[in-house]
Amino acid sequence: MSRLGFHTSVLLVLAVCMATKPSIAQQQEFEVASVRQFQGPHVPHGVSLIVSHGKAKVDAGSLRQLVAIAYGVQRAAVEGGPDWSDSDEFNIAAKAEKEDASYGEIQGMLQILLADRFKLKVRRETKDLPGYALTTAKSGSKLKQAKDEEAAGFNAVMNGLIFQKMPIAGLVNYLANLAGSPVQDLTGLTGLYDFSLDLTPSAVVQFEPQGRVPPIVNRFVRVSGAVEEQLGLKVEARKVSVEVIIIDRAEHPSEN
Questions:
Q1: Helix or strand holding residue 241 (H, E)
Q2: Per DSSP, what are the bridge partners of residue 95?
Q3: pLDDT tens across 159-197, in order?
Q4: How far apart are the first and last CA of the chain?
Q5: What is d(CA 135, CA 247) in angstroms, rounded to the nearest whole number?
Q6: 178 & 205 share domain
Q7: How many Cα neighbours within 13 Å face the side chain of 43?
Q8: How many structural domains compose the chain?
């Protein structure tokens, strides 16, 4: 995936990540693993854990993003860490002993890898934080159940987003990344869905903010408006109770 393609091919992995919270004490280590600092320019992009036949790969992930993936929380719910937690990026390539290792098992191995190579120490807390909640609008959800034979996927197209066979956690994580704040799923929707969002100005004009705002804020407002109008779901600003991973210690990793 291109580092500039920060919407494409990331939501499905993040959705699975949110559903699993492995215990580090119950996990095996990777059979082999490589950690190298990424030397390219720092640009906004999506970071995902790609798992296939026991192999795991993360490209250009910051420490905060790596911790979020390993512990199954949104990036906005990772606190603390050294001053390079968001600026320095790392490539990870690893292989599990089992080819059929599950995503959750790979997450546990990633936790061990971070503890070993980054000398990472974290703790969990539950906090009430300013954020957002995704709820069902009064008009009701407009989501359509996905067909069993479909393949899961996500695409960002010109002025729009297409979600296919996607759990609601995929949308929740997308919103959290745009907002830079935790988003809690209160919809009660548990299926896999097909849906799209039309983000052309004419489609969500009544939700546009007034005055000059940063582009990322403008996009969050537009997406939130489209979610309500087109999907029958509502994004509400509120304090949310979330599990937070606090980085107490981390060092630059030893490579390989």
A1: strand 233-249
A2: 32, 55
A3: 888 888 888 988 998 899 888 899 999 999 998 998 999
A4: 23
A5: 30
A6: yes
A7: 9
A8: 2
